[in-house]
Amino acid sequence: MYDAIVESRGAVAGPFGVWLHSPEFADRAQRLGALVRYETRLDSRLSELAILVTARAWDCQLEWTLHEPFATEAGLAPELIEAIRLGQYPEFDRDDEQTIYDYVAELVYNRFIQERTFATALDLLGDGGIVDLTGLIGYYSMAAMTLNAFQVPLPKGRKPTLVDCPTFR
Hints:
Layout: H1 2-9, H2 16-19, H3 23-38, H4 44-57, H5 61-74, H6 78-85, H7 95-110, H8 115-149
Helix pairs in contact: 3-8, 4-5, 4-7, 4-8, 7-8
């Protein structure tokens, strides 16, 4: 399982070191992770937006710090990322980003989606896209819970970028 994770991701990092204590779980989690991150109907910009909102909701320093550069690379505006980092409602230049933000934030903070928010996301993504987005939120919530529960530290040399949450040593 270790070799499979290294082959697919380049290294055993993040929650994978913890999940390896249960090889069957690690196998299924890494396959699900590959699916929700790389093989959904969502483009990487929207996936990374959903991951950042989820990481912020769970106050997960490692998930945030690792994904913030991916979000920038995927094309999210620095002002949008900064607002999420600070726990503020962002100003949006793109309707699709506001739709994704609202859907994710309502689910992770309120545990439910308002009908209007769901309808807007459904218009944007379709039924399959909503399933993909919800699965991505669930996967990254599970990863954040693992990272926080096991107090997984940042990689050596990485500085924390998420405010008001623990950084484990």
